[in-house]
Each structure stands twice: as structure tokens, then as C-alpha cells.
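Q: I'm writing up a methods section and want to include an example of the input and output format. Could you take the sequence below and give the corresponding predicted C-alpha cells, formatted cleanly so I can copy it straight into the document?
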Amino acid sequence: MANMELIKELREKTGAGVSYCKEALENCDNDIEKAIEYLRKKGLAQAEKKIGKEARQGIIHSYIHLGGKIGVMLELNCETDFVARTEDFKKLANELCLQIAFDSPKYISREEIPEDILNKEKDIIKEQLKDMDKPPQVIEKIIEGKMEDFYKKVCLIDLPYIRDDKIKVDDIIKNYIAKLGENIVVRRFVRFEVGEK
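A: Here is the clean output for your methods example:
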């Protein structure tokens, strides 16, 4: 089992996501150098470095579900028009639309959530925990855990992937970044459901 210090060190050296670092360390008996090599072979370390690059090309993709009862429109961006036209890029756009149709997230990432919404959620959690006879640091940990659960319900990239709930949507996007060799960004999306206000 990989410990958090090793995961943190590997993240700093490669820029790969926590779940990938954990997987690499577990597969390499907690040997950092072997884990770096493992990630490089998988192309994930490079994928993370691509994330900062500007993504101005892309496509608008739409998806209609349940015989016209739910519709999703998504703007997915990449660095070049060449990648935007590939079948892999279109497949990712479709997978993301399917995820949005299924889970109805409100935001792309946690950075998008307005401060007042976050504060309101924390206040609700604190109210639920007010009768708990626990030390403040334990209460704080419980609040953190419940906020993580909140992000997994409202943020697209934090959602468990519909085809494999052991990984997040963010991991799927990073896999495509590694595969296509360009930064990929979900710019915006909208979800419609018949009868919904």
C-alpha cells in the first residue's frame, strides 16, 4: 500500500494525478524511480504537463437521450483542429455528454463553484454535526470528507466515470490527453430535461 508521502513525492516529480501515482507505486513496490518509469510508459506524466497548454480549437457536441427527453450540448477544446477532427476526440466528447446526461452535474470543476454555495454546503454539514461529541480536528476531517462527497455529485470532472466507477471523469480526460498528445479542456456544457425548470 502506497503511503501519502510517497504519492506526494511522485506527484511533484511527474505531475500525474493521485490515483495514477498510487497505482504506479503499488505496481512498483513503492520504488519512486520505477514508479516514474511506469508512469512515463503509460504517458500520464506527459499528459499532466500538457494541461497548462492553451486549448482554443475543438468541437461543439450534442447528445439526445431517452427518446428526446434529455439533451446535452458540450464545448470540448483541444490545441489543434487536427485533433478536434479525430474519432478519439469525438468519442471523448460523446462520453462526456453521456456522463452529463446521466449525472446532471452543475459545474465543470470545484473551482467554478461560487463561494456562497460552498459556504452554504459547509453550514449544512456543520449543522448536521453540531451534536457530535468529537474534537474540532475530527469534525474538520468529517467536513472535508463530506465536501469531497459534495464535489463528486456536482462537478463533472470529480464524478465517478459511468463505465468504471473506480476512476473519475478527470482520469478519462487525462487518458485522452496522453493518447492524443494535446491538452483537452471542457469549456462549457448545458443539459436540458423535458419538464425541468
